[in-house]
Amino acid sequence: MFKKVLVVEDHESINISVQRSLIELGINNEAKNNVYYCDDAFHRIKKAIQEGEPYELMITDLSFDADGTNQFLKSGKELIEAVRKIQPEIKVLVFSIENRLEKVKPLFNELKINAFVPKARQDSKDLKRAVQTIFNNKDYYSPNLKKSKLNSFPYDFSDYDKFLLQLMKSGKRQIDFPSHLNQRGYKPSGLSSVEKRLKAMREGLNVKTNEQLLAHVVESGII
After folding, report:
1. Which residues lie below 8 Å from residue 119, measured CB to CB, with a gap of 6+?
2. 124, β-bridge pairs
3. CA separation (Å) from 193 to 52, 155, 187, 196, 200?
4. pLDDT in tens, 124-143
5. What are the φ and ψ backbone dihedral angles of 116, each rounded to 5 degrees?
6. For 60-77, how does the pLDDT look when each residue is reduced to its tens digit (9 = 90+)?
7. CATH classification of 5-141 is 2.40.128.100, yes or no?
8. Are 166 and 158 in contact (CB under 8 A)?
9. Better-predicted residue by pLDDT, 144 or 72
10. First to last CA, the chain
11. Shortest CA distance to 116 belongs to which of 85, 77, 153, 152?
């Protein structure tokens, strides 16, 4: 089992809960290995490397509440990116309120995290399973991650589609879409083509109006 773990969590009660879960796994962490700010976590990891005793695992949240303390690294994502540059081999477990699968997958693909556990009922058991799984060099996707309704529909959004949706989101009039498409070099740019694409997206997502379409894609993180 891991011997040296860094816990990065700004809510004290959750920080303590994570520590308790680690103890139940036989990991007795020192107080200095539990921090509340991303900058402190980065400096702790950097110092451990310099001392020749690097951390094996970092457990971090994604969002950290601003409390007036000046911080260079303001989010778990920024922390992971910074840590990967100085210790690419460290295992990373994200423990966050986020529970949407489509938001989590990019963290595995882009930041190369090893596990993701959403904060929820019985998350302590989930957290311990995650630690055990990545100790055995396997990635861990929590079974508590939720698929968006969009995942039920076989529709693949192109860059063209996403640009149309961005125009809708920004409040542009549909009659003006062709000029915006021309400016960006998108073809076809005619109004009839725009209407056909919007209809295809609505049918793909099984919604009736453009308003419902936009709500779905924003909620799911497509745009």
Report:
1. 14, 95, 96, 97
2. none
3. 61, 18, 9, 5, 11
4. 999 999 999 999 999 998 88
5. -135, 125
6. 999 888 888 888 999 999
7. no
8. no
9. 72
10. 40
11. 77
The full set of domain ranges for the chain reads 5-141, 150-220
d(CA 124, CA 127): 5
Q: DSSP secondary-structure letter at 116? A: E
CA separation, residue 33 to residues 47, 54, 108, 198, 212 (Å): 12, 12, 24, 51, 46
132 backbone dihedrals φ, ψ, rounded to 5°: -65, -40
Q: Which two tokens stand for residue 134?
A: 């990545």
Q: Which of 201, 180, 198 is nearest to 189 (CA)?
A: 180
Rg (CA), the chain: 22
Is-contact 5 26, C-beta < 8 A? no
Grade residue 154 by pLDDT with cuts at 50, 70 and 90. low
The alpha carbon torsion through 65, 67, 69, 75 (nearest 10 deg) reads 10
Name the more confident of 156 and 187: 187
Tell me which residue of 50, 105, 41, 52 sits closest to 79, measured CA to CA: 41
